[in-house]
Specification:
It is built from nine helices and nine strands. The chain is α/β, with parallel strands linked by helices.
């Protein structure tokens, strides 16, 4: 209410809003944004404001509180962020991204008509997003999870020429570390180590995919994942793309756009750089 009154007062004075914006660029924003992190800053209230207003959000708050504590206690190791001193703050900046992971997995579990909800992730890293997805469905439906990752450095053989600067990234990842992080779900999780698309041939493919998360940071493996797994997804299934709206991944965006244009469903880009694809039984225009 105070923030609204403040901006209303600025609107009443010609030139005041522009002057205020200029001052903020120099000394920082006041009042501060309600959320800032992962490429997005907004004054709108996040879903978890005032402890959440719906069951999905309240469940997310509980899952997020738990993972923050586990990371701070050293029980969930984030090898991707070992150089970050304040990991609690980092996880706070990731909350919108993780909320979309959590929400989309819950949505898929409720809308994809399958006897067992199968969650599939291509590009797993330390297992942080997989953890949120499994927390979203645990105790609600029967589920299984299949996780694909090289757990090694990115190789030029799987990259377009425009992506070759990424070769060598993620060399620090280790499968055993991810297994430890996700040991709570060890009886429901299959880890498939290797580079996509070859790794699709090293273990039986899931017969049905309710939720698919693609976070491969490269166009060719993203296309291979879609070519291999999309036809196994029933209507009501959901694909979450992590690398859609980022400037560094425009080749990946082009692959996703072409896929969405040729598929029955609807693509929803979101301000976090992610995008959701909801599969339907008929084309949506």
């Amino acid at each position: 209410m105070i923030k609204r009154a403040f901006h209303k007062a600025l609107d009443a004075v010609p030139g005041a809003e522009g002057a205020w914006i200029a001052l903020n660029r120099i000394v920082g924003r006041w009042p501060p944004p309600s959320f800032s992190g992962w490429g997005m800053t907004t004054d709108t209230l996040p879903p978890w404001f005032a402890d959440g207003g719906d069951p999905v959000t309240r469940d997310f708050i509980a899952a997020n509180t738990e993972i923050v504590q586990r990371v701070c206690d050293g029980r969930f190791f984030l090898s991707q962020f070992t150089d970050v001193a304040d990991q609690r703050r980092l996880l706070g900046e990731l909350m919108w991204r993780h909320f979309i992971v959590f929400w989309s997995a819950r949505y898929a579990a409720q809308n994809a008509s399958t006897a067992v909800t199968t969650l599939v992730e291509c590009g797993v890293c330390d297992g942080l997003t997989a953890h949120f997805a499994m927390k979203a469905v645990a105790g609600r439906v029967a589920f299984a999870t299949v996780l694909y990752d090289a757990w090694e450095e990115m190789k030029g053989d799987y990259l377009l020429e425009t992506e070759h600067a990424a070769a060598g990234n993620y060399a620090y990842l280790a499968l055993e570390s991810t297994r430890r992080n996700l040991r709570e779900f060890s009886d429901r999780t299959t880890f498939v180590k290797g580079y996509i698309p070859e790794s699709f041939a090293t273990a039986p493919l899931p017969t049905s995919v309710a939720w698919l998360h693609i976070d491969l940071n490269a166009a060719l493996p993203t296309k291979a994942a879609l070519d291999t797994l999309y036809d196994r997804m029933p209507a009501g299934g959901t694909i979450l793309f992590d690398d859609y709206g980022w400037r560094a991944y425009q080749d990946t965006k082009a692959v996703i756009d072409a896929f969405a244009a040729a598929s029955s469903g609807l693509l929803l880009p979101v301000p976090t750089g992610q995008a959701l694809f909801f599969k339907s039984c008929r084309p949506i225009t």
